[in-house]
Amino acid sequence: MWQRELVRAAVRGGGAGSPRAASVAAASQLRRVLESQLEDIRGSGTWKNERVIASRQGPHLRLAAGGDGLSSHPEVIRASVEALEKFGAGLSSVRFICGTQSIHKDLEEKIARFHQREDAILYASCFDANAGIFEALLTPEDAVLSDELNHASIIDGIRLCKANKYRYKHMDMEDLEAKLQDAQKHRLRLVATDGAFSMDGDIAPLREICQLAQKYDALVFIDECHATGFLGPNGRGTDELLGVMDKVTIINSTLGKALGGAAGGYTTGPKPLIDLLRQRSRPYLFSNSLPPAVVGCASKALHLLMESNAIAQSMAAKTQRFRSKMTAAGFTISGKDHPICPVMLGDARLAAVMAEDMLNRGIYVIGFSYPVVPKGKARIRVQISAVHSDEDIDRCVEAFTEVGRKHGALP
Ligand code: PLP
Predict the structure, then answer these.
(1) How far, in Å, from the CA of 127 to the mean position of ligand 1?
(2) pLDDT band with cut points at 50, 70 and 90 for residue 1
(3) Which pLDDT value is given to residue 70?
(4) What is the Å distance from ligand 1's center to 225 Cα?
């Protein structure tokens, strides 16, 4: 489409040799470069298709042409519709101009209460929360120590700040300790880690991290996108699971996964930090306020989680069922205790064909390959939901076993 526009512009603007003709040549060259890259991706077997869902998300869904718990909960949907009707579609503004409604303040208060922290601040996404925190908090006098496998948004957020940067080996406490020793010369030290790493389903050794932080006078930051709402006895997250809620200083998380699944993110922690973020954090200051329907849905999801720990408890039991049955069947499941269960296969094509065959058997799983995971570490990532029944889980294990045998992943 854009190329046709350029051709028309070239015709209007003069013949060969004119600047417009040159831009048509550049556009054709770009197209060739892109097509060759796309061909390489197809050839390597790592092409990713988007599967179009023609129903709500849930344990059972309908695919076009061919979930997750709270996002389809009737009370969550009703709360979202009510907020839409009462507070409108959106604020057309950032928070400090005319973008703050009572529901934003209520949700921030609820988030802080849920995590047992002093205060909270909302963002349009957790990507934004991660983009906003490091630059606002840390100066060239300070240091940040980051797990090498942290989520891309933490890496980008750290890139934006001027602190001294240390990258420690994935969950390697010896390496973290060495880097903390080196970082003693700086004013503040902040250890930053995902609470749970989504690609491998592994959980950060937060107890050990907090012990080291205490020893070397450092702060601890965790990204809880893959923990909030379901890890720990009451779904508070990794810090609750590992008994260190009072030792982690700052939590960033998303409203776009377990907390209703719509969108939005937040930081929760000490009040002066949240006050500073409201003054200095760029994605907060320069991006629109969360729409009321999204706020309503997240607020109800949090309310349901605070009312009962049934969801967190059933997630843990179902995760254990799937992981143990798959391991007994002969598969290698990466990580431990996390409802994200990566079935490790190694080869990208094998992951792609097995995922396709699982879909043919009515089970929605996705093959992950490079560049989402390292080369040679392709896998099918299974996500257990609290609304899956034991029968769903058993059927999934049986299908994996059949498909694995068919494609030689199992003897
Ligand atoms: N942090 C982690 C660990 C994530 O997995 C994600 C999203 O997948 C994000 C941050 C970004 O969250 P959001 O979708 O709210 O921007």
Answers:
(1) 6
(2) very low
(3) 83
(4) 6
136 token code pair: 């606002």
Q: How far apart, in Å, are the Cα atoms of 63 and each of 66, 146, 168, 249, 284?
A: 6, 39, 42, 42, 36
Would the CB of 223 count as within 6 Å of ligand 1? yes
Residue 8 has pLDDT above 80, yes or no: no
Q: DSSP per residue over 124-177, as a string?
A: S-HHHHHHHHHHHH--TT-EEEEETT--HHHHHHHHHS-SEEEEE-TT-HHHHH
In ligand 1, which atom is closest to the CA atom of 198? 5
Q: What are the pLDDT digits (tens) for 83-120?
A: 999 999 999 999 999 999 999 999 999 999 999 999 99
Task: Tell me if the pTM is above 0.90.
Answer: no
Mean pLDDT over the full length of the chain: 90
Q: Can you give 205-242 as a three-state secondary structure string?
A: CHHHHHHHHHHCCCEEEEECCCCCCCCCCCCCCHHHHC
The DSSP string of 68-97 is -GGGG-HHHHHHHHHHHHHH-S--SS-HHH
The verdict on whether 257 is a catalytic residue reads: yes
Q: Is 253 a catalytic residue?
A: no
Lowest mean pLDDT among 30-39, 187-196, 210-219: 30-39
Atom nearest to 263 CA in ligand 1 = 15
The verdict on the CB of residue 340 being under 6 Å from ligand 1 is no
